[in-house]
Amino acid sequence: MSVMNFDDPRLTAIGLLTEAYAGLMARFQPVLAAAKLSEIDFETVIRLARSPEQRLRMSDLAAQTGLSTSGVTRVVDRLERQGMVTRQACPSDRRASYAALTDAGRERLQSVLPQHIQDIEDSFTSLLDAEELEAFLRTLRKIRDVVRPCATAGAVEPGRTCPPGDTAPDVVTTVSAPSA
To answer: Class for domain 37-147, per CATH?
Structure first.
């Protein structure tokens, strides 16, 4: 029986990433809660806001958020009841529909973004200089493209597949800086 190295740097790397993510989400939660948005509600509306025409096919929204099709349907149903999102039929495919951000959704998002961006700055991006931030973003994209290759589904031309290593433009993640 081999002895496992509990100080393996790979364990340290994933542990630090997990701790940083949990800490950031804890800092962001009060602002989202004050706006009556859950993390997944916020992720959904910000992805829609940053997508072409502020809408995404439901299947692409599911791929981007990592939710199942039924999970994204429940989130969109809830956001639709709040007037933040609406469904639109796809003119070229009767089986598909879009989730689209409404004016009310845009307004709610605009009300929370200034403080959310300030929280990101205070607890994340201001800790890195410009070169460190760019290197960090490149590293995160490299990892993201392997572990969630469809995280940008719908942000590129229709029909494009999402193979590992795909370098489609970023749409958003809760803690990422806007892409250039």
So the answer is: mainly alpha
